[in-house]
Design a protein that fits this description.
two-stranded antiparallel sheet, 8 helices, 2 strands
């Protein structure tokens, strides 16, 4: 009986955790998030092209690895997020995103990289990656909490962290 009560408590805690991610309002502007993602995307293309100089497989592998750990490298801040004064945190601990959170958070993007970068896999890209990326953008634009599918998967949220941002005006 005690085991049943603990599983009910665990289920309630999981529901509260998911609700806290999906509900509420975000203090981070959509423009800041898109600009940070654009900066990160440019760097991702550079990583891909540098790796592709050796071979396409190396380029794809480096890009997928870079993307999967993007938000875990610098204290929950990718380079784009650092410039824009944003940070990715784990919702349950309020600590900066770790590699596991970052991998889960960026999984839809890694799928797009893996299937979109090889012409043999473009069918899978259209079937899997395009709907995932469409859902990412749809959630980001329609929910007040401004979370995307990756935030739900990784149990993360993007918050402002201006004190750690680069001062680009100096």
């Amino acid at each position: 009986m005690d085991k049943g009560a603990s599983s009910l408590n665990a289920a309630a805690a999981e529901k509260d955790r998911r609700s806290s991610i999906l509900l509420g309002q975000s203090e981070v502007s959509i423009f800041s998030r898109f600009l940070a993602k654009a900066i990160d995307a440019l760097l991702l293309v550079a990583v891909f092209l540098l790796g592709r100089a050796l071979s396409t497989v190396v380029g794809v592998a480096l890009a997928a690895f870079w993307c999967s750990g993007l938000d875990a490298w610098g204290n929950g801040q990718s380079i784009g997020k650092k410039i824009m004064g944003l940070c990715v945190i784990d919702v349950s601990s309020a600590m900066p995103c770790n590699f596991r959170n970052s991998f889960l958070r960026n999984f839809p993007l890694v799928v797009a990289i893996l299937f979109g970068s090889t012409s043999y896999l473009w069918g899978f890209f259209l079937i899997l990656a395009v709907p995932l990326l469409t859902l990412e953008v749809y959630l980001l634009l329609t929910l007040e909490s401004r979370v995307r599918l990756g935030d739900v998967l990784g149990n993360t949220r993007v918050v402002e962290r201006l004190e750690d941002s680069f001062d680009v005006l100096q």
